[in-house]
Design goal:
Elements (H helix, E strand, L loop, with lengths): L3 H21 L6 H9 L2 H4 L3 E4 L7 E5 L1 H4 L1 H8 L5 E5 L12 E2 L3 E5 L2 H11 L7 E4 L5 H10 L4 E5 L2 H13 L5 E4 L12 E10 L4 H6 E12 L4 E10 L2 E6 L28 E5 L9 H10 L3 E7 L5 E7 L4 E8 L2 E7 L4 H14 L8 E5 L4 E5 L6 E3 L3
Parallel strand pairs: 6-7, 6-9, 7-8, 9-10
Antiparallel strand pairs: 1-2, 2-4, 3-5, 10-11, 11-12, 12-18, 13-17, 14-15, 15-16, 16-17, 18-19, 19-20
Helix pairs in contact: 1-2, 2-7, 10-11
The structure holds S-adenosylmethionine.
Length: about 400
């Protein structure tokens, strides 16, 4: 076993290498954030974690601790530009006897340093700014904020009590004492408001109205929006009084959805063979999985989810179910394309096909062509400009 001072020396070296790599690939763009990456000991925030296994088949995560992989390898992995999982299905890991985990959804992690610093750079902070972070997680990103802005200018909210307690302990060990709260970040925190900047490291289905109230005019809200089928990506909104507006980024980083907004467990009722009305489909189920059109499908059918399965031992059909409005789509292959059968109050496939056709008319642009405007009464994603084609975010 390496001694503590040796770990500290090796970790400092690995941090400098990480900062150098992030500078080279353009994620670190300012000396202040470079200094923060070189200073914050990520190994205090991820003393144990899970990584995805390479094995084929069902996604499985395997535990990584100094005892399991050896101290040197553990430290090397800690300082890789990777997201490391620290909790699944909201349940704490039994670290006395950690086992591989499959068939579970990650619910807390230390986001890859590259994505964290890219977002922090995008946030555009200056000395003395007051920042609210939603999703403390392990506390690593909180510690970077403390290094840059000082403890007194950082508030971070984590919804999971045990995750929050561990983050507080790690932050204290690393010498950081920001304002830490346990709760639903959608409410923000009035006591330390107003904020110059708000950054969320979990995804939301819409922008909580409290954020608009608590961020100063001219301030920035940086968050990922996400739906139940896929992430919509990262948006940077500038607050102007009681509304906010801004653009999606070109890449579409994805975060785990806020706990309170996770999809209901039941997908909804599978329709019977005679339900709904039929027509020839213009698009097949591929539009639900191809990145650009899937973004449109998510906008057009915000409460829907889909799966494919053989019907009556015949060919595979795709079911799109909306458990909120009880609407459905069944896409079945025919000799000349796809047949769609839809029912319920929302014509889901009509809405998806119309959104995909609009996107194609505009030249199939990537997410950077889209923006978001939110006000007290409505929240819309638009294409091209705020008066262009638009789709409402779910209330
Ligand atoms: C990707 S992790 C955060 C990573 C973290 N910033 C880091 O560097 O370690 C997302 C975190 O958001 C938390 N979370 C989910 N919903 C939340 C909510 N409504 N309010 C506050 N935190 C939430 C999760 O429990 C999880 O710990």
């Amino acid at each position: 076993m390496t001694s503590e001072p040796d770990i500290d020396t090796a970790a400092a070296d690995l941090r400098r290498q990480l900062a150098h790599r992030l500078e080279k690939d353009g994620r670190l763009r300012s000396p202040e954030w470079t200094a923060a990456v070189a200073a914050v000991p990520r190994h205090l925030f991820v003393p144990r974690f899970y990584r995805e296994s390479d094995a084929a088949g069902v996604t499985t995560w395997e535990p990584v601790t100094p005892e399991i992989v050896g101290q040197e390898e553990w430290l090397r992995l800690v300082y890789r530009d990777e997201t490391w999982m620290t909790q699944f299905d909201g349940r704490d890991i039994d670290w006395a006897d950690p086992k591989p985990i499959s068939d579970a959804a990650p619910t807390s992690s230390s986001t890859s340093p590259g994505l964290v610093v890219r977002m922090l750079e995008d946030l555009g902070v200056n000395e003395g700014m007051n920042v609210l972070e939603i999703g403390t997680g392990t506390g690593y990103s909180t510690a970077l904020l403390c290094h840059r802005l000082g403890n007194g200018n950082v508030t971070s909210i984590e919804t999971d009590e045990n995750v929050a307690r561990r983050a507080r302990e790690a932050l204290t060990r690393s010498g950081c004492t920001p304002r830490l709260l346990v709760g639903d970040g959608r409410a923000g925190d009035r006591d330390a408001a107003p904020y110059d900047r708000l950054i969320a490291t979990c995804g939301f289905r819409n922008i909580p109205s409290a954020w608009l109230e608590q961020v100063l005019p001219g301030g920035v809200i940086l968050t990922t929006l996400r739906g139940w089928m896929r992430s919509l990506g990262l948006v940077k909104l500038i607050v102007t009084g009681d509304s906010a507006s801004g653009w999606f980024s070109e890449d579409d980083p994805s975060f785990m959805i806020a706990r309170q907004q996770d999809a209901p467990e039941s997908l909804g009722m599978v329709p019977g063979p005679g339900d709904g009305t039929k027509r020839k489909a213009t698009y097949g189920p591929d539009v639900l999985t191809f990145a650009g059109s899937a973004f449109m499908a998510q906008l057009a059918a915000p409460n829907a989810r889909f799966f494919s399965m053989p019907v009556d031992s015949g060919p595979v059909s795709t079911f799109v179910l909306d458990s909120v409005t009880k609407s459905f789509v069944v896409l079945a292959p025919t000799v000349s394309g796809w047949q769609v059968r839809q029912g319920g109050p929302c014509r889901l496939w009509d809405a998806i096909e119309s959104a995909v056709a609009t996107w194609e008319e505009y030249g199939s642009p990537n997410t950077a062509a889209f923006g978001v405007t939110v006000s007290r009464d409505q929240q819309v994603v638009w294409l091209g400009n705020p008066n262009g084609p638009h789709w409402s975010l779910p209330a």
